[in-house]
Specification:
Number of strands: 2
Order of helices and strands: HHHEEHHHHHHHHHHHHHHHHH
Distance between the termini: 54 Å
Structural class: mainly alpha
């Protein structure tokens, strides 16, 4: 009976998450950053119309009139190939199909998050984790965007889950899943490799201390280096023996060396964006957990209950937080203008909230602090209200930039079949 009740609650959670992600599913590209949907649809159409032999399984824009191919040669090719597969499978290249592919991957990330937290903290904490991940606007809005983030996060979650389960069970099958997570992530985006590197460095550190796991070091090292090298070789081959576009894009982010770059301004802009898409409650939880991780014997750490947390859980939070932070700092120019650049903070923020809410609840109950219950109510009101407001704003305010960019794609490159008839 208890198992059946758990299944029902999980079904309600996933229906809730799918409902939020499916808002405006079939509408045309018009909202902030939805030019990504039009762009990757165009890339996918290049594979379908020209064939993989012509595109060499990499990202190209094809001018509709001249037929000239323009390389987009600075990312792995996974998104275009996944969308091309979705279009081929469904027989449609409508926005609903592209969004649907992103939603499937994001729901997969949600499922892995629930499984991960359940394996370490139990079912109740896993349910809270799923609710937070489904509700926070960063996931609920950008989790439906055909771009690197929803697809890449699935690979990240597979890495974190497989790594933690291997450390807990020693089962070789989780090494296989970890290998798959690194390879899949590397084929989709560069960001998942930040997490692979973080796990690798942690295990190397543990190995030096005599507490590491040699198989984890081997799998993370071989798969990470291998997929990075494969991506570079593929880029070189697909562009006819050149890495010009890749090197040019790397040069664009030398913004820190630029005299006009203001570190304080950049940091404040990132905090402002974080509180908007992760809520003020999420920001407070993240700050508390960061303090607890850096000062494991502090009052904050004891209050959150993180002092008693397992080494695996603490390492998982540290790696996920630092990897996401490193990704933001590695490309400050893009992080400043792209709202979704903080998407990979979702695992760390969700885990922080999983500790923060029970700690607040227990603190109120422990000494009969009934007068503090409005504080708990404020936590939920703020998280719910700010999330609802951000989602409403994002879904109801068309972006002029997006509309112009989509118009340019459709004026110059391959048209979706729904528009070319």
């Amino acid at each position: 009976m208890a198992q059946k009740f758990q299944t029902v609650r999980l079904a309600v959670l996933f229906a809730y998450a799918a409902g939020l992600l499916s808002i405006g599913l079939s509408k045309d590209w018009r909202l902030i950053h939805e030019d990504n949907g039009a762009f990757y649809t165009t890339v996918a159409l290049s594979h379908l119309r020209l064939g993989l032999g012509e595109t060499r399984a990499h990202d190209f824009l094809v001018e509709r009139d001249a037929g000239r191919k323009i390389a987009y040669g600075h990312h792995p090719p996974g998104i275009g190939l996944i969308l091309a597969g979705a279009f081929k499978l469904t027989g449609s290249d409508d926005p609903a199909v592209a969004r649907g592919a992103a939603i499937v991957f994001h729901l997969g990330s949600l499922a892995i998050m629930v499984a991960l937290v359940r394996s370490l903290l139990g079912f109740a904490a896993a349910l809270w984790a799923g609710f937070f991940m489904a509700t926070l606007p960063m996931g609920a809005f950008f989790g439906r965007m055909p771009g690197y983030e929803p697809f890449g996060l699935f690979a990240v979650m597979l890495q974190l889950f497989s790594w933690s389960r291997y450390r807990g069970t020693g089962s070789a099958k989780f090494l296989g899943f970890l290998f798959l997570g690194v390879i899949l992530g590397g084929l989709i985006d560069w960001a998942p490799l930040f997490f692979s590197l973080g796990l690798f460095l942690f295990e190397c550190r543990q190995l030096i201390r005599g507490r590491g796991h040699g198989p984890l070091v081997l799998v993370l090292g071989v798969s990470g280096i291998g997929i990075f090298a494969l991506n570079i070789v593929h880029l070189y081959w697909a562009q006819g023996g050149s890495l010009e576009t890749f090197l040019r894009v790397l040069g664009r982010n030398k913004i820190i060396a630029h005299s006009k770059f203001n570190i304080a301004e950049f940091a404040l802009s990132q905090i402002e964006r974080f509180r908007r898409y992760f809520s003020h409650a999420g920001l407070l939880a993240v700050l508390c957990s960061a303090w607890a991780l850096t000062r494991p014997h502090s009052r904050v750490s004891r209050w959150l209950g993180m002092t008693a947390a397992s080494d695996t859980w603490r390492a998982l939070m540290a790696v996920s937080g630092l990897a996401a932070l490193a990704y933001v700092c590695a490309a400050p120019k893009w992080a400043k203008v792209h709202h979704f650049w903080q998407f990979y903070f979702l695992p760390y923020t969700v885990c922080s909230l999983v500790f923060f809410w029970p700690a607040l609840q227990q603190w109120i109950n422990k000494k009969g602090r009934a007068q503090w219950w409005p504080l708990a109510a404020l936590f939920w009101i703020e998280l719910g209200a700010s999330s609802a407001y951000t989602l409403y704003a994002r879904h109801t305010r068309p972006s002029a930039y997006t509309l112009n960019a989509v118009g340019e794609f459709r004026a110059n490159y391959l048209l979706p079949s729904s528009l070319s008839r």
